[in-house]
């Protein structure tokens, strides 16, 4: 089964003089318990694809067409109330910037517990216990302290671990990660990718994983779509794309990664 099926998605920006086709008719499927990667250069339309799935495209952007099937329903046809019940619980997100996920005026533990209470019918004590359990699960070294810390007191890596914890607490059916380690130092990035890989395999998660970095995509994903100029120019198993890319663009993207390595 597919946890998500995107058909002919189009998301455009209408600027004063121009139409920018940020997402220009893309289709892909994410099979249950697999990691689907979208890879492409900056500006290729990866984030707009994510924002379209969650129906959070900012003005003056507009979703112009397509279907996004999640659990048999077209998210593009559902009302705002339904979407609110999906976002943050059945579909959750990890962004590049942890500061966008946490409110600076509340402690980490409080915010994770609130995320649980917003979607699960359990008491406050149980929610706090669960929040603590997830801080341990993402191997934050001093979870009891971090629980009572404010976001600005955390290092970038710890904050990103806390955001991953918050994305997991409601046991999402689909987890979307948009450049989850891009803002971090290389060594911390590697640690967090290893942690993610372990959690993904242990919990059999279904994931849309986004990165501009082919090396990371190769490590994390089962299937890959290569994005360029708002289109998916090539798609297939990570193994096939890496070992025998067909499209000119994919080949050049892979060569540029090798050149850096
Ligand atoms: N507010 C905006 N107004 C006009 N164009 C935008 C806006 N936001 C994004 N775009 C355009 O949409 C395209 C895709 O952006 P994005 O999805 O953020 O790329 P990526 O995540 O792959 O780096 C880019 O070419 C960008 O110029
Ligand atoms: Mg982006």
What do these coordinates show?
- By secondary structure, this protein is of the alpha/beta class.
- It folds into two domains: 178 residues, P-loop containing nucleotide triphosphate hydrolases (Rossmann fold), CATH 3.40.50; 73 residues, no CATH class.
- Helices cover 39% and strands 27% of the residues.
- Strand 4 and strand 5 form a beta hairpin.
- Helix 3 packs across helix 4 and helix 4 packs across helix 6.
- The structure holds adenosine-5'-diphosphate and magnesium ion.
- Adenosine-5'-diphosphate binds next to strand 2 and helix 1.
Layout of SSEs?
Blueprint: E1 2-14, E2 19-31, E3 35-39, H1 46-53, E4 61-70, E5 73-74, H2 80-86, E6 91-94, H3 108-119, H4 124-137, H5 143-147, H6 156-168, E7 174-178, H7 186-203, E8 207-211, H8 214-220, E9 223-228, E10 231-237, H9 238-243, H10 248-260
Parallel strand pairs: 3-8, 3-9, 6-7, 7-8
Antiparallel strand pairs: 1-2, 1-4, 4-5, 9-10
The structure holds adenosine-5'-diphosphate (ADP) and magnesium ion.
């Amino acid at each position: 089964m597919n946890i998500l099926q995107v058909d002919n998605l189009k998301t455009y920006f209408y600027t004063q003089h121009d139409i920018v086709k940020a997402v220009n008719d893309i289709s892909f499927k994410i099979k249950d318990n697999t990691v689907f990667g979208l890879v492409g250069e900056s500006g290729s339309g990866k984030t707009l694809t994510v924002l379209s799935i969650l129906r959070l495209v900012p003005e003056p952007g507009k979703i112009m067409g397509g279907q996004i099937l999640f659990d048999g329903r077209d998210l593009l046809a559902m009302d705002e109330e339904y979407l609110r019940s999906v976002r943050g619980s059945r579909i959750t997100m990890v962004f590049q910037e942890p500061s966008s996920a946490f409110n600076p005026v509340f402690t980490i533990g409080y915010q994770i517990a609130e995320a649980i209470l917003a979607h699960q019918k359990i008491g406050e004590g149980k929610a706090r216990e669960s929040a603590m359990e997830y801080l341990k699960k993402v191997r934050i070294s001093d979870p009891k302290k971090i629980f009572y810390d404010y976001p600005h007191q955390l290092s970038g890596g710890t904050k990103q671990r806390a955001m991953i914890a918050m994305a997991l607490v409601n046991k999402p059916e689909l987890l979307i990660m948009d450049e989850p380690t891009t803002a971090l130092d290389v060594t911390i990035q590697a640690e967090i990718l290893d942690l993610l890989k372990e959690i993904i395999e242990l919990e059999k998660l279904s994931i849309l994983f986004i990165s501009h970095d082919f090396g990371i995509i190769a490590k994390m994903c089962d299937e890959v779509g290569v994005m360029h100029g708002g289109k998916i120019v090539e798609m297939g198993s990570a193994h096939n794309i890496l070992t025998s890319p067909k499209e000119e663009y994919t080949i050049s993207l892979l060569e540029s990664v090798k050149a850096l390595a």
